[in-house]
Amino acid sequence: MTSRNLRLRRLSRATATLSGRNRGTPKVVALGGGMGLSASLTALRRITGDLTAVVTVADDGGSSGRLREELGVLPPGDLRKALAALCGDDEWGRTWAQVIQHRFESKGDLHEHAVGNLLIVALWEQLGDHVQALDLVGKLLGAHGRVLPMSAVPLELQALVRGHDPERPADTVTVRGQATVALTPGEVQSVHVVPADPPAVPEAVAAVLDADWVVLGPGSWFSSVIPHLLVPELLDALVTTKARKVLSLNLAPQPGETEGFSPQRHLEVLGRHAPKLAMDVVLADEAAVPDRESLADAAQRLGAAVELAPVASPDGVPIHDPELLAAAYDRIFRMHGRIGPWR
After folding, report:
1. Rounded to 5 degrees, what angle do the CA atoms 220, 101, 317 make?
2. For 23-70, what is each residue's pLDDT tens digit?
């Protein structure tokens, strides 16, 4: 059996499984990575019992990078963070969230490795199946949702950057590696992944096709959000799904890769990377949008309406408040129509 036929068979089984779930709650798929995806998941698990995270697999820094280089595995760090975000607020959930996020401190090889990274990789080696292993970790943690990698192979993120070398601000060079792209002092023009045609995880494609709502962002724009659009099978699913789609913007530009970006510029670069992808709603914090008309124009080019809501932490720190973000998502899901009834 060819690898393509095997993926199609797994996709068929995954779709059948998803179709049998409880239809009384909105089926939501959240795409991203790192702290941005964690913010969305922490909010979304408050308003739906049918939640799937599809996580980028291009990380090459820290503990994930070391495990990836030494063992040839998918980088587990963003997957771990997503699982931690889905842990419950009870004692069991809080305890396990702390355990899998715990990092060792030593003068040896374990220094800075996260417990959850080691647990995930150990189960991958034991079971030989990324999805089965992550489902098992989620069951152990009592996670309020499912976590899936977006691709079955580790990806290298590459970016065309103008001014990566401050002494040559007009030069455009190729910068390799997610950790390097995220911290570049230059201006990112575009990103791509290697291999250029990576296989999507069938369960991730099935989740997108079966969803009521898909949430993309917030997060590091070039290194966590846009990479999902560079996996052809996943992009095809995002273009063809009947699900409605929310693009959740960041609260502020990220030092390095989006330094100086306006909210509307985030939309413009996303549109250049996936010109066939339409969105339904762009969610932004009302205090983070100085030019509402320009944002509305950029959103309209993606087919989307703009929803402004207070979603930032009230203490002024540029992080999303889980309760406020949950309220904004819930309002969007209800105001902009539904595919099936819930609650």
Report:
1. 45
2. 468 999 999 999 999 999 999 999 999 999 999 999 998 999 999 999
